[in-house]
Amino acid sequence: MIIYLDESGDLGWKFTAPYRNGGSSRHLTIASLAVSPPNKHRPKRLVKKLYTKFNWPTNVEKKWADMALEERVFFAKKAHELRVNYPDDIKYLSITVKKQNVQPHIRKDANKLYNYMIGLSLLNEMSKHETVTFVPDPRSIKVESGNSLHDYLQTQLWFEMRAKTSLTTTPLDSASSLNVQFSDMLSGIVQGHFEDGNSKPWTELRNNISYKTLFF
Fold this sequence. Notes:
Blueprint: E1 2-9, E2 27-35, H1 41-53, H2 69-85, E3 90-98, H3 104-107, H4 110-126, E4 131-136, H5 149-160, E5 166-169, H6 178-196, H7 200-205, E6 209-214
Parallel strand pairs: 1-4, 3-6, 4-5
Antiparallel strand pairs: 1-2, 2-3
Helix pairs in contact: 1-2, 1-6, 4-5
C-alpha cells in the first residue's frame, strides 16, 4: 500500500484574532490517500483531468485554497466515484483536531500532537499490510520533538500494533506529486467543513472518508 499525506490549517495557537486576519486556524486536518500500487495512477488521472477541464496552468500547482466551489465539488464527486469503483484499492482517511480544546501542556510540543494525530489516523490501515510506502509532503513532517515521524510510526506498528509491517517513508512535495495534491484536496474538503462551514464538497464525499475528530 502507498499512503500519500497532506494537511490543512496550521499549528499556531493565536485565537484572539480571526483566522486569516492575524489569528490561527481553529482546526487542523491531516488527510491521506491510501492506494494499492497497481491503482496509483487513478487518483493522478483525476487531478490531471481537473487541470484540463478547468484550464489550470500546468506549470503552477493548483492548491485547494485557490479552487472555486464548482471545481471543489467536481473533485469531490469524482473522488467519490473512485472510492466506489475501487473500494479495496483506494481509501481516504483524515483526522481533525479542534485546537482551542488542546490542553496548554500539549501545545508546548505541537509536533508530538501532530505525530499522534497521524498515528491515530493511519496506524490501523498501515498494520493491515506487509509493506507500506508513506509519502507525506515534506512540509508536513515535524521532527523537532526528537523522534522522527517515521521512527514513531514504525515503533507503534511493531510494538503497540504487533504488526509486521515494514514502513518506508519517502517525502515528496505536492508540486512534484499529483497524488500528494490529491491528498491536499482531501484535507481541504474536511478542513473546509470544520473550519469554515463550507460543506458542499464534504456532503459529496463524507461517506467515503474514514474520518476522526480529536478534542471536539
